[in-house]
Structures are given as structure tokens and as C-alpha cells.
């Protein structure tokens, strides 16, 4: 089974697997680096890691047009329902659900989470995806934490923030990779605005020093086959 990934800037990715399109943390209309607008986004499922605007601001409008099913924690799904989202799969930290494209596990993230209107959004999180032939860890917005090693088993791809200031930075992301040991490492949550500017090429060189691990750097809008 082939898996394709497209980066739409910041933390927004499109994963294509088994004929399903999984959009992660859509932030398109107000993102300075997004190559598409929300009206152009395709999705069968939308995964939302936490309630901050730079992860959720386009979810309701994309779901309304595409009828994509939204996967997030209970609090965020409840809030999305009030925004008109018809189909949600609510879950919470540590839980795993089976969907037509594979399993989705809700993972820990050390961050904060409030929705754009101030509503508490429960705990922030990440996702561990068990697809047909690929395990992908999406860390979400988080600090480095040692329990990341619990997500390392048979891990193919790790998507980690490197922007610093609001999440872990490049050096802590390297420490995270020592715990996760994925085959491929993908950075996100950087270069969207000046406070989170980072040199992804320099980071990629540090990833290569870890051995048996390939950094995969995307330009916004770029689509690549994984693994
Ligand atoms: Ni955040
Ligand atoms: Mn963020």
C-alpha cells in the first residue's frame, strides 16, 4: 500500500492512504504559508490535535462542504457540533478507534488547548495512525516528553514540531527522534511566522547523524510518497 503526504504549511498535512484522504489540523485561509484555501481542500476525515486557531480554524467550513468526519477529543467534537459539523468521532487520550483507513490512537501532548472563542478544549493531543503498512505518529503541538518512547514500536514516520517558542524546538525534536526511532522524520509548525522561523535543512543534517533515519522536508504544497 502506498501512502502520500502533502504539507499545506504549518501543521496541516493531507495523508492519502487506501483511497481515503485524511486532513490534519487544517489552517489554510489565515495561514501566511498555506498554498491552498479552505474551499480547495479535499478530505474524507479531518484530524484535529487541539483547539488552537492555527489547527482548527478551517475545520467546520471544510467539513460542511466535504462532509468529512472530524476526529478529535470529546470537548472539541462537542464544540465542532455547535459550529455545524455533522459527523464527528470523539475520543480522548489513550483511546484508539478503528476507521476504514486504519486505527487512530489519541496520544499525549504537553501543551495548552483553548478554542478560538475561549471554550476549554480538553487536553491537547497527538495521533498514532496504524495504516495498512505504515505507522505514523503525529505529535501535535507538544514539548519533548520521555514517554514518546511508548509510541516507538514499529514506527515508520514521525511528524514533529520544530518551531520552538510554542512547541519543542529543533534540538528537542532531535531528542524526540532518539526515543521514537522512526524510518522517516518530518518537521512542521515552523516558518509560518517570524517567531517560529527555523532552518529545516540544518535540522535535516542533524537527523541524518542519528543513522537509519531519513529526514523528509516539504515545501508548502509539496506532495511526496512515504516510505
Ligand atoms: Ni497550539
Ligand atoms: Mn500551534
What Rg is obtained from the alpha carbons, in whole angstroms?
16 Å
Q: Please summarize the sheet with the most strands.
A: 7 strands, mixed
- Envelope shape: globular
Pick out the low-confidence regions: none
- In percent terms, what proportion of residues is strand? 25-35%
Give the number of DSSP strands: 14
Describe this structure in words.
There is one protein chain. This protein is of the alpha/beta class and 227 residues long. Helix content is 19%, strand content 29%. The chain contains 5 helices and 14 strands. It has helices at residues 53-56, 59-66, 74-82, 170-180, 200-209, and strands at residues 3-7, 13-17, 20-24, 45-47, 69-73, 88-91, 96-99, 102-108, 125-131, 134-138, 157-161, 184-188, 214-215, 223-225. Strands 6-5-4-3-2-1-14 form a 7-stranded mixed sheet, with helices on one face. A 7-stranded mixed sheet has the order 7-8-9-10-11-12-13. Strand 9 and strand 10 (134-138) form a beta hairpin. Helix 4 (170-180) packs parallel to helix 5 (200-209). It starts with a strand and ends with a strand. The model has no long low-confidence stretch (mean pLDDT 98). Manganese (II) ion (MN) binds next to helix 1.
Supply the key terms.
single chain; 227 residues; alpha/beta; seven-stranded mixed beta sheet; 14 strands; globular; binds nickel (II) ion; binds manganese (II) ion
